[in-house]
Write a structure and sequence with these properties.
The protein has 403 residues and is of the alpha+beta class. It has three domains: 10-90; 125-233, Butyryl-CoA Dehydrogenase, subunit A, domain 2, CATH 2.40.110.10; 253-363, no CATH class. It has helices at 7-23, 37-52, 71-84, 92-105, 108-119, 235-252, 261-269, 278-306, 315-337, 349-358, 365-375, 391-402; strands at residues 125-128, 144-147, 153-159, 170-176, 187-193, 199-204, 213-223, 228-229. β2 and β3 (153-159) form a beta hairpin. α9 (315-337) runs antiparallel to α10. The longest helix is centred in the last third of the chain and has 29 residues, at 278-306. The radius of gyration is 22 Å and the shape is globular.
Length: 403
Amino acid sequence: MDLNDTPEQATYRRRIRDWLDGHRAHAPAVVGSVEDAAYLSARRAWQRELAQGGLAGVTWPAEHGGSGLGPIEQVIVDQEIGAAEVPGVLDGIGVGLMGPCLIAHGTEEQKHRHLGPLLHGDEVWCQLFSEPSAGSDLAAVQSRAVMQDDGSWKLNGQKVWTTNGHFAAFGMMLARTDADVPKHKGLTMFIVPMDAEGITIRGLRQIHGEAEFNEVFFDDVVLPSDAVVGGVGNGWGVALTVLMFERFTIGLGGEALGFKAERFARAVASAPSSTHTDAVLERLGDLATDLLAVRFTGFRMLTSLAQGQIPGPEAGLAKVTTVNAAIAAGELIADVHGPAVLDPENEFGYMISFLPGLKSAGGTEAILRNTVGERVLGLPTEPRLDKGIPFRELKSREREATA
């Protein structure tokens, strides 16, 4: 029992712990290659088992296959999965972001078709948002979707940094459907089958050797009219739902990713005693304080989620704090243990090489701090030259300025 558990939560925690104890033998390794078909198959099977046991989609409504519980129960599940040292769901993007987005904005037909296979790992999803010229400024996406005479849509463009795109069955794509209105207003969200004709996927190999990210090209990809999520022209609002869940998941789900103050403290303590200087302990104390602050801030934020609210912009601060603290932990562990810790086979080697990219996921630190400053603290907004200017005219001005 956790010291903060109510009697009901303690009972739930024991049930989750007992389930994990009984199914631990079926769990694959926590770490494996996303290019290994056998490993991915094992992770799919494990996600299916988690879903059947009520450990995936904990907060999803029961009518959509979830447990219909609150975010506190989700935290308990994440804590117990981490303590058991078994993997969570393979498709964190689908279960954590795309599923909730479909529940909030999808049609009944879309929910019926996609939520079950998504939750059980039968169909993995990816997020088709960022582009080479539209990452932090997501509303500047240039991939175009044009409606055809029969009501279908034709997609053209490019996306980049697409996690799991090479084995995803579907993606949720933000595309521009109207270039004659201000850029936030001319966007639409689409469900895209990743095996559709005209889609080319190329892996982007990272410093640790894996190609988790991809660039995806769309050449006259045809989508049916019912591929639209949330209505034509409403893509920005749908995208914000995804982004808020993403920032909340990264920030407050850090412990499920292994970003725990206790784990980092053990790693530092296991280094030669000669490294345990006051400066090292001060660095450890700083990052541990940040991670513990995120943990308990998260518990307070869970109250609003329990009332059915979508995470607000303040969730971005949890993401910023978690990632920066984990990066600081990786640097500290490398300093006290030496270069050997950078080996990909070391438990921290992958984390150290992966974390710099995570700084941009869900929005860069600068963007998130601006959002919190403007939308939470009420600070004056930065000058925006594109305010009220149609996207087509804005791009024309940019071309003239750089000519």
